[in-house]
Amino acid sequence: MQISTLRRQCRPFAAAKQRVHRSPVIPSAAVPATSASTQVFDYTQIEIETKPGIALFDITPQIRQRVQQLGVTEGFVNVLSRHTTTAVAINEYETRLLDDVRQFLRKLAPASDPYLHNDLHLREAPADWPGGWEAWAAQEPENAHSHLLSMLLGNSETVPVSKGQLCIGTWQSVMLVELDGPRKRTVGIQVVGTTQQQQQQQQQ
Amino acid sequence: MQISTLRRQCRPFAAAKQRVHRSPVIPSAAVPATSASTQVFDYTQIEIETKPGIALFDITPQIRQRVQQLGVTEGFVNVLSRHTTTAVAINEYETRLLDDVRQFLRKLAPASDPYLHNDLHLREAPADWPGGWEAWAAQEPENAHSHLLSMLLGNSETVPVSKGQLCIGTWQSVMLVELDGPRKRTVGIQVVGTTQQQQQQQQQ
Amino acid sequence: MQISTLRRQCRPFAAAKQRVHRSPVIPSAAVPATSASTQVFDYTQIEIETKPGIALFDITPQIRQRVQQLGVTEGFVNVLSRHTTTAVAINEYETRLLDDVRQFLRKLAPASDPYLHNDLHLREAPADWPGGWEAWAAQEPENAHSHLLSMLLGNSETVPVSKGQLCIGTWQSVMLVELDGPRKRTVGIQVVGTTQQQQQQQQQ
């Protein structure tokens, strides 16, 4: 085993192999040259209308765009799946692989297996649910398998940003994994870091 | 697929459906109005006495309380499982679902399967173990399955904080997953961010 | 269930049981006493030549060394697996357990199962691949199972640093998980935080 540590910049997107699903990098010249040094804690949410069952959505372009808009040069992005039947994953956004993922997850936690969470008649509705238990049960999906897969896949990923670039690898995409669609979903995107101006100030 | 980006605040806890297991949000007025701007890096540990086998513990109230105590308005929380047979997960803390999780994990990596790590007679004790190999083997559990599940579930999650609120969704809880209890466990909770005072200063 | 919150420092490495695979902690005296307060966003990549199939590599010494070199006292480390067939995990780096992990993962997503991603004749090469489809297909591995395992294990972990120490537990190591080796791989290591000087300044 050989491990060597080397300091170097993120592979710039321009040098990476072209991927159809990636948006181009907008030069960070959008940041006014006169702005004071700023530490950024920017929280936004991406809204996605998902497809039925298990479905994956590449949200890398939105993340990259937000980093560029803010002009963050050194920092990172916290990505949070905000639902109990979704997850966040990083992998290759290749059509046939996405179908493999769907099949694999369906086998790993089959929807048809017996789950206690799906016995709606044995569960209580939240105390303040409008219309009471009947109304709650009428809209409550039998989706225990989706919860289990959400826990396995995980709900947060953190991606470093360096020299203004997301530090993911050439073939990596950040994805929302819908495990019980279709629904309207939100993903939390938090960009933390410093702008180019602040970095320059420190170097002077 | 429709993806739209919108900037908005975290859903405030008050607006979320009432959950019994969540502690109320303490207004951040606890922060003295005269305090100087502060960047917070606060590391604490939560101590939990766990239950036998696989067991899940909602630690969201403790995390939320710490964020409020510190008066952090924009930032995030790093949650770290500090043991090799525990994990951190985010999902719905619903009684029957928790039993589904236990059953699912027990099937996924059965304790009764053969594992090399459980052949204590073929392993060495740490060089400085008091009492030597005998004493080490006497206390060493056969828990390879717990290690495997810990790796699958993952050991860290990062949750953004915005406008003083944890940005998890309405039904989400942050949980310690005990995979080889009962034990006394610690979870690392790191709150990073800025206080309201600093935010206000920047806006002036 | 008993949960108590306590504020305390990370268990210092010196107090932990001796582990052969861990490099000693270098005192942060390397930081010049005269340096101004600094907020650190340091991104580096570790390069690893991996072994065939599934293989795990302890990268904790490199992470700990980088934290020490930078003199970061309060902060955290973002660790990112930068490939679609690798992952990052935290667990015990024990020889026989590593073999259990290999066996477990091979059973969980068998390489011999049918996967759509492995039908190379039905996939297109990237538009600009040198030599076109033939050249692409000749080098493209049939590794759908590795992608699936990467998604399950997860691609990022965040580890807090407090009082200059990595806050992982005594038996925890941060590992790169190779799922389709051998290859030359890079792991992104981002150290974020403040130096001792800045901490002291705040306290004065």
UniProtKB/TrEMBL annotation, chains A, B, C:
Task: Please give the InterPro entries that the UniProt record associates with this protein.
Answer: UPF0047_YjbQ-like, YjbQ-like_sf
Transmembrane residues, as ranges? none
Q: Which domain of life is it from?
A: Eukaryota
Q: Which PANTHER family match?
A: SECONDARY THIAMINE-PHOSPHATE SYNTHASE ENZYME (PTHR30615:SF16), UNCHARACTERIZED PROTEIN YJBQ-RELATED (PTHR30615)
> What is the designated name of this protein?
Secondary thiamine-phosphate synthase enzyme
The species this protein belongs to is Tetradesmus obliquus
